[in-house]
């Protein structure tokens, strides 16, 4: 590939798109140098295509100039997956927001990658349908970003993560060609390349159209708030609810610190003196939902729940969920920075892992909160801090590494829904053997033999993942 000067790169990108959708000002480059993680990088150019053809044009220009590219959605990722490393071209899909087709009979829709998660559900609600994966950032995260990280959300305990709701993806490959992965048939022929692409974090190409499965709205819903005098009792109740034979639509846990912060922020009626609360939702047919809610209450009280509150109507239900999904807004009132983890541990190990997490935070003199998807053991230890304080960032990173090691030692995995990105890349050998990593590297090379699509992400750096190093030069914590 022919190397050219950056000015020639910009001119060619402007010809492929339009001058006003190719940005190079220092302010805009700085804005797109980071996502919602604590990692930042540096971009050479930021592009805003509005069609699959323009995405192809951007990728082909990058290829001509020998430049890597970083796909980016709404920038809500928490693992540094959209952070540019090595002066790449950032290709932003937020202007690709068309809902292309809705088929209510087949319960599916074609969307562009910039469509926001919640906007999709709102657009099909009048048909009695919704898009089931619901990350806490669903008001601002995009479907393309959800596909990139295989996002989850509270209701994925019952309904499954993004991969269960993607039928097909049109992808611009790193060589600029446009291909269709998957299909609308229930049993599409050939290799499941759709499954390989979902969760690949932009390392195999850029999604330009996505066919998603739509799910009927449940006929009945019961939402319960249980409060406990100890984290241990709440965690034990989580296992008890699942052991009783229930799979709730959602089973969320919040500890004392985050409960108070959220209540002060949203005023959802959360008990400020609780050591922990569980937010449990069951849905289905009315008779079954009432029976399931009774079991949740019975199990909760057997494990020490002080009170069990059942939302009386949709307005109260919405307020409870607003509280749960406002955690990030709430912590901004406490400290300006946060470091959020995303490990999954067996439900039976929740009590001991949470005890270890709190001990780590205390030892490093850090403020730690926990708000997470308890039903599937998807922990989200949340450290809040002010990075301007001397030495605090070093303590935060050291504590984070110990938290990851504690989760893996308990039989857990590195990520449940946020992805690997830059943040957890160098921890991959904790759960994968060299042969495992080599197999993943070979798959990635099949899509991107030149290594230009979102480089430095997911897999450890070096030839065939063998030469490990820390966060690459050009990225800052």
Description of the molecule:
The protein is an alpha+beta fold and 477 residues long. The protein folds into five domains: 6-92, Uridine Diphospho-n-acetylenolpyruvylglucosamine Reductase, domain 2, CATH 3.30.43; 99-216, Uridine Diphospho-n-acetylenolpyruvylglucosamine Reductase, domain 3, CATH 3.30.465; 220-328, 2-Layer Sandwich (Alpha-Beta Plaits); 335-409, Alpha-Beta Plaits; 425-465. 33% of the residues lie in helices and 19% in strands. The protein has 15 helices and 20 strands. The protein has helices at residues 6-16, 26-31, 52-65, 117-124, 143-149, 156-159, 193-197, 231-243, 256-266, 286-302, 314-325, 327-331, 350-363, 392-409, 434-447; strands at 22-23, 45-47, 69-72, 89-92, 99-103, 108-111, 129-130, 166-172, 178-182, 206-213, 215-216, 220-228, 250-255, 276-284, 307-310, 337-340, 343-344, 367-372, 378-379, 381-385. The strands form five sheets. It has a seven-stranded antiparallel sheet with strand order 15-12-14-13-18-20-16, with helices on both faces. A five-stranded antiparallel sheet has the order 5-6-10-8-9. The chain has a four-stranded mixed sheet with strand order 1-2-4-3. A hairpin with a 5-residue loop joins strand 8 (166-172) and strand 9 (178-182). Helix 8 (231-243) packs across helix 10 (286-302) and helix 9 (256-266) packs across helix 11 (314-325). The longest helix has 18 residues, at 392-409. It is globular and about 65 Å long. The protein starts with 5 loop residues before the first helix and ends in a 30-residue tail after the last helix.
């Amino acid at each position: 590939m022919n190397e050219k000067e950056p000015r020639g790169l910009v001119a060619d990108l402007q010809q492929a798109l339009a001058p006003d959708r190719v940005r190079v000002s220092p302010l805009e480059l700085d804005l797109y140098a980071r996502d919602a993680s604590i990692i930042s990088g540096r971009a050479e150019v930021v592009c805003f295509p509005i069609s699959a053809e323009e995405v192809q044009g951007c990728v082909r220009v990058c290829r001509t100039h020998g430049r890597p590219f970083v796909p980016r959605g709404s920038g809500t990722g928490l693992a540094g997956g959209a952070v540019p490393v090595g002066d790449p071209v950032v290709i932003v899909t937020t202007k690709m927001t068309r809902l292309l087709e809705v088929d209510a009979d087949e319960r599916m829709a074609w969307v562009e990658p910039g469509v926001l998660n919640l906007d999709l559900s709102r657009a099909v609600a009048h048909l009695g349908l919704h898009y089931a994966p619901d990350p806490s950032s669903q008001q601002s995260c995009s479907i393309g970003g959800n596909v990139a990280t295989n996002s989850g959300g509270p209701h994925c305990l019952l309904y499954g993560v993004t991969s269960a709701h993607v039928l097909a993806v049109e992808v611009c490959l790193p060589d600029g060609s446009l291909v269709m992965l998957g299909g609308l048939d229930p049993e599409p022929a050939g290799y499941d390349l759709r499954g390989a692409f979902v969760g690949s974090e932009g390392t195999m190409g850029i999604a330009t159209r996505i066919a998603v499965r739509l799910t009927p709205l449940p006929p009945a819903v019961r939402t319960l708030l249980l409060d406990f005098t100890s984290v241990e009792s709440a965690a034990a109740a989580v296992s008890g609810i699942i052991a009783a034979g229930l799979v709730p639509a959602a089973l969320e846990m919040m500890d004392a610190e985050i409960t108070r912060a959220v209540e002060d922020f949203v005023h959802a009626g959360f008990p400020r003196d609780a050591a922990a609360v569980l937010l449990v939702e069951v849905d289905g047919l009315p008779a079954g939902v009432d029976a399931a809610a009774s079991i949740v209450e019975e199990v909760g009280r057997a494990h020490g729940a002080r009170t069990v509150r059942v939302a009386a109507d949709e307005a109260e239900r919405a307020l409870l969920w607003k509280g749960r999904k406002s955690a990030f807004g709430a912590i901004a009132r406490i400290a300006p920075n946060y470091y959020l983890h995303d490990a999954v541990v067996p439900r039976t190990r929740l009590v001991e892992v949470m005890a270890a997490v709190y001990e780590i935070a205390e030892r490093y003199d850090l403020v730690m909160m926990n708000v997470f998807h308890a039903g599937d053991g998807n922990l989200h230890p949340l450290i809040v801090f002010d990075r301007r304080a001397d030495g605090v960032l070093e303590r935060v990173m050291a504590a984070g590494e110990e938290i990851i090691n504690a989760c893996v030692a308990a039989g857990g995995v590195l990520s449940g829904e946020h992805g690997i990105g830059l943040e957890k890349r160098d921890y991959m050998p904790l759960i994968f053997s060299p042969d495992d990593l080599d197999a993943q590297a070979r798959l990635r090379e099949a899509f991107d033999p030149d290594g230009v699509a979102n480089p430095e992400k997911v897999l450890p750096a070096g030839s065939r993942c063998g030469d490990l190093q820390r966060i690459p030069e050009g990225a800052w914590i």
